[in-house]
Amino acid sequence: MTNFTGLSSEEVAQQKLEGNQNNYTIATSRSYSQILTENVFNFINIVFFVIGFLLILVGRFSDAFVYVGVILVNSLIASLQEIKAKIQLDKIALKTSPKAKIIRNSIETENPISEIVLGDLLRLEGGDLIPVDGEILEGVVQVDESLVTGESDTVTRIKGQKLTSGTYLISGNCYTKVTAVGLQTTANQITEGARSYKKNLTPLQKEINLSVRILVIFSFVLVFLIMINSIINGIGLNQSLPITAVVAGIVPNSLFVMINLAYALGAVRLSGKGALVQQLNAIESLSNVDVLCVDKTGTLTTNHILLDTIYPLKENLKSTQKSLADFVTTATSKTPTSQAIAQKLTGQKLEIVEEVLFSSVYKWSGFSYKDGRKSGTYIFGAPEVVLPIKDLNKSDFKEQMQSLQNQGYRVLMLFHSKKILPLTIKKSPQIPAGLQPIAMISFKNELRKDVGEVLESFKKAGVKIRIISGDNTKTVLALARQVGFEASEDETISGKDLENLSEAEIAQILPKIKIFGRITPKQKAELVKRFREAGNYVAMIGDGVNDVLSLKQANLGIAMQSGSQATRSVADMLLLKDSFSSLPYSLLEGQRIRNSVSGIFSIFFTRIAYLLIIMMCVSIIGLPFPFSIKQNSLISLLTSGIAALGLTIWSRPVKPSKKSLISTSLSFVVPASVSIAVFAVFLYVFYGYYQYTLNFGFGADITSSSPEVLSSLIERIIPLMRTVLSSFLILSGLILVIFISAPTKWLSPNQKATGNWQPSVLAILLIAAFFYLLDKEYFLSFWEMSRLNVIEIVVVVLFVVGWFFNLKQIWQKDLLSKILGLR
Asked: CA 64, CA 543: separation in Å to the nearest integer?
């Protein structure tokens, strides 16, 4: 091997000074600017800001301040929480970020890829993601360029050829000189502007997006109708604009903010359990998983492979050991199995004539050699792949091989010919004829200690486990049984058998198969795709380069920290320290997030629904508009702002329903919103009539009163009516939070208690604070509310109590289902 020195410290410093450093980073989470922009300056908020600006133009300064202020407070609080979470996650991500083996001053060190400079010398080996463009100075490698070109076929690269960033090494080792860094690399130029923060939506997010889009369209239609009405009836902007502002407020502007916060807090909690989330919605995505595909090596087992026994087939043990040692010393591919052999045996390096590097696609490697008077060909790989079936069946070692495989050993064989045989045909690897088996080698895998408990926890959660491995089917079955995974031989299939089946046959047997052996990377990705097409939500766990395609194909990709850089780069979640035991926590955290999002969704849409019903009913009756901008903002701030924040922070895991979010939320939203609206409208009308009789007497004709008297009374009565209505809506809205968190069965809509008192305590404290502030002049003045006497407060409380028990009866007797005929 050539002795490379690499750049000197002075040359590295000069390159950095000239800006030739690979400090162009790819974000795996939202940047600070994205958090602020999407939480504060999103499209919906901009509409509200415009309305706020128009309110300033017509002189309604305090209304504009409150209207925009409440939005900003909600958005900024959640943004600060998400930024705080991002800081913690970025610290963890930095510790697990990809590193490059850089040679400088003749010394090789591992450094973050951001430290690479132009002209640096890198050493790359199988499984490495190629971080920058470069030129091979020494070595032969096989490269998968599918992440950049989209082509799944592997290519061989030799000395003098280029390596492209964004691709990864399947096998082989090489030294490469860096020819482009940062934005100048091929991968960054191809994907500039399109690769930062990949956003794959979960089913929950898709439903929420659909609901919000419908509301946006509906609110725009209502605003348009209000504008037409104002023009036709000559209503000034000063009068119509507050109504427009309240109507526009039906769009849940802070709903997405709360959801992003729920994801960020979940990611922080999970990082303490040993998992790094690279896509914020990955945790919630895990709660949807009903099929979990796992690789064997590196997943069920650790990456430590130990040489067990060498069985000579043609020569004595000493000669067999020498042949095996020569092979692993000479072969460019340094696989875990060859490294396990190299730890025990030391051989002679032969002069290679032609070589095929190991690939998980064809599961063998080999080379032909000529060394002085000696020449020949070695092939090392899986016996059932290298040998024709007829030869394998006739062999005298078949029974021993199967016995070892049935015990969970990995069995490989070394083949030899004294002739130099061609290993490729038209540049494609081809196993030559004339090979003789000279050794059978067994290897032991180290099982992960916690894998059995993890698989059992997923089974109890209703998740189907499917083991997909490149190893022999019987070996995988034996290892699976050792960790408590129940499967029979009839529930296994090999990649070769799978190839011989028709599409219809595959579709028929797929639900029955639990273990897939001798599967190629392409087959693995195809299996994941088939599971998805069958209507499943699929997670894939892998660690090697052969898992990259299947991880990309899955709804949720999970990688081991010790896995290849390529695997880690495409995964949505990373298991730190290969902690398989963090998965059950991830599942619970996903359920927690789904539960909090479901609760937040119900709170927001209940408020929107009852506001719309109240506005329509009051408009039909002919009473004054029921809300001022400030009062509506106060309702929003308390019931779907602070209270929803409590649900986000303190939500607990609940096993998700198989139904969609919208259908499950309807059973809460419809009874809650309709009952609130009915009681609210009745209270509004009742109190208006009470004030009417109080001022004019029963049956009085108000048309005889002077316009000045009427105007004065209306100015006094309407704020009182609105205060009574707002008080009722605030109290009932906060009680809804107690219903959703349901600390006891008696308070639960579905008779299932969570035991979670924290959101309920927050709601009770907010109710107490509201009653306290109802007596404070500064509070009443700012929010344009009137002071209520004891009788009026008692009436409001009685209406709240009546609504409370009425809604409990609706849920308890399932009246909604009975009325709609859905039982």
From this structure: 54
